[in-house]
Specification:
Length: 490
């Protein structure tokens, strides 16, 4: 079976909105394209404002029973969803690759990680603890603090990890006792919609998880943030959209969590294990073709190891196989957003004009077999001036600008010289140095001597313009609760 026939099979996917117990079509629909071929993979309804309001109605109605469902029962259901996701791993992974283009092995890992959040939050559902104490000034007063579910949650997710990022929000919110209206990205909504079917088969009651799709999506944000029944908007995506949603949410003082972009430095000090640093830089740079919020965006390398690091790293980048994600040999798939390759090319050209040296890549791929998609080659540039877009902006592509650093202070200053604050990678064999820079970096995550920052049991979140709030870990569940204290004169 060729890749094309696999894609054609999916052309039959005709998705519906999930609103309470109804599966709803709309007069207008929009298509989802395979970024590797630009072929149609499927189509989704274009929800109108009235559909979003109907989803809020359904979520509000379902909340009454769901918040009173015993935590153990909620946990059992979430575990079933976890099991079912893993049973459908192959199918879901293929769907993710078709809608986003990432290599199939990365899509399989995404399904596994998404399911893992189900298991983690199933367990956390049973541990929503409060606090009890005798009143401060009056020994006869008992103070009880309890955490309660916020209510209806609007969850808006991006395209780059379409299943994982939906699952991370949905599992935490459901574990807390909230009900959800999920709005996945119009570029890649199919695997998130499949999560709805999986949850339904696992026995999740109607209305607890509603899913709406729309293209363009702006009115969905307006309806969700404008309806006082929606108690929280949990958003993952770009800074611009995050600000827009926060502004709109101010009208009702609706709570927001914003998981936004990153411009993540990868620091390599003179005492680093260079081979390990190269291996990790490759993974941190190229995961999902460089389209990851925690991607290494720029490499800051000590001047004494700059030549050797650049030689090893660029050799490894040159060896990466670019191609469709369904090909088993592919390391780097297509870019997803229309126009991404020309946006990246222009940032690379600007850096070269400003004095950067191109080490590898840097030109559009002239391959007939890839002409249907937006592919860009792994690219390395050195001595990139700090005021160029490759350094100041989130590139979201397989491009690695390298800048020299000469000491810790300069490294920290350079790493912090950005409006973003999501993740920083640090390579050094010195614990003292690792701790010193970890303390001084303005970031939500520091990753020392490894490539993968996250884990289900720890919260991810940014500082500065990378966001507000946390996802993952017990803190990620707390985001969907409010605290209430009950003061009792006993
Ligand atoms: P985006 O902001 O364009 O879109 C994200 C989601 O918001 C999509 O579902 C889109 O349809 C929706 N949206 C856009 N405008 C809206 C509106 N007015 N009302 C309601 N919904 C609206 O972002 P994207 O291009 O899909 O994702 C890439 C960005 O996401 C990058 O900046 C990346 O760093 C960031 N990201 C952050 C994290 C994190 O955990 N911090 C994780 C993944 C991606």
């Amino acid at each position: 079976m060729t890749d094309t026939t696999i894609a054609t099979e999916y052309a039959e996917i005709r998705e519906l909105l999930r609103i309470g117990n109804r599966r709803v079509d709309t007069p207008e629909r929009f298509e989802i394209l395979d970024p590797a071929t630009s072929q149609v993979v499927g189509s989704c309804p274009n929800a109108a404002a009235a559909d979003v309001i109907a989803a809020i109605d359904a979520a509000e109605e379902a909340f009454v029973a769901w918040k009173r469902t015993a935590p153990d029962a909620r946990a059992r259901l979430l575990r079933k969803v976890h099991d079912a996701l893993l049973q459908e791993q192959d199918e879901l992974a293929r769907l993710i690759t078709l809608e986003v283009g990432k290599p199939l092995r990365e899509s399989r890992a995404e399904v596994e990680y998404a399911a893992e959040f189900g298991l983690w939050y199933a367990e956390e559902a049973r541990r929503i603890y409060g606090r009890t104490a005798l009143g401060g000034s009056d020994a006869k007063t008992w103070m009880h603090l309890v955490r309660q579910p916020l209510g209806v949650v609007g969850a808006i997710t991006p395209w780059n990890y379409p299943l994982l990022l939906a699952a991370r929000k949905v599992f935490a919110a459901l574990a807390a006792g909230c009900t959800v209206i999920l709005k996945p990205s119009e570029l890649a909504p199919l695997s998130a919609l499949r999560l709805g079917y999986v949850a339904e088969r696992a026995g999740l009651p109607d209305g607890v998880l509603n899913i709406v799709t729309a293209n363009p999506p702006d009115h969905v944000g307006d309806v969700l943030s404008g309806d006082p029944r929606v108690r929280k908007i949990s958003f993952t995506g770009s800074i611009g959209t995050g600000k827009q949603l926060m502004e709109a949410s101010a009208r009702n003082l609706t709570r927001v969590s914003l998981e936004l972009g990153g411009n993540n430095p990868f620091l390599v000090f003179e005492d680093a294990d260079l081979e390990a640093a190269v291996d990790a830089a490759l993974v941190a740079k190229l995961r999902n073709g460089g389209q990851t919020c925690v991607c290494a965006n720029r490499l800051l390398v000590h001047e004494s190891v700059l030549d050797e690091f650049t030689r090893l790293f660029s050799a490894a980048m040159r060896n990466q196989v670019v191609g469709p994600g369904l090909e088993p040999t592919t390391d780097v798939g297509p870019l997803v957003q229309p126009g991404a390759a020309s946006r990246i090319q222009s940032a690379v050209d600007d850096a070269v004009s400003a004095g950067a040296t191109l080490v590898c890549g840097g030109l559009p791929l002239a391959r007939e077999d890839l002409s249907g998609g937006s592919f860009y080659p792994p690219t390395v540039l050195r001595d990139v001036p700090p005021d160029t877009r490759l350094v100041t902006e989130e590139t979201f592509g397989p491009v690695a600008p390298i800048e020299p650093i000469s000491n810790i202070d300069e490294a920290v200053e350079s790493a912090n010289r950005t409006d973003y604050g999501l993740a920083v990678y640090v390579f050094t064999e010195s614990l003292r140095k690792a701790l010193r820079v970890s303390e001084d970096l303005e970031t939500g995550i520091v990753v020392v001597n490894r490539a993968a920052p996250s884990g289900v049991h720890f919260p991810q979140g940014g500082v500065k313009q990378s966001g507000i709030g946390l996802e993952g870990g017990p803190e990620g569940l707390e985001e969907f609760t409010f605290s209430k204290y009950i003061s009792i004169n006993a």
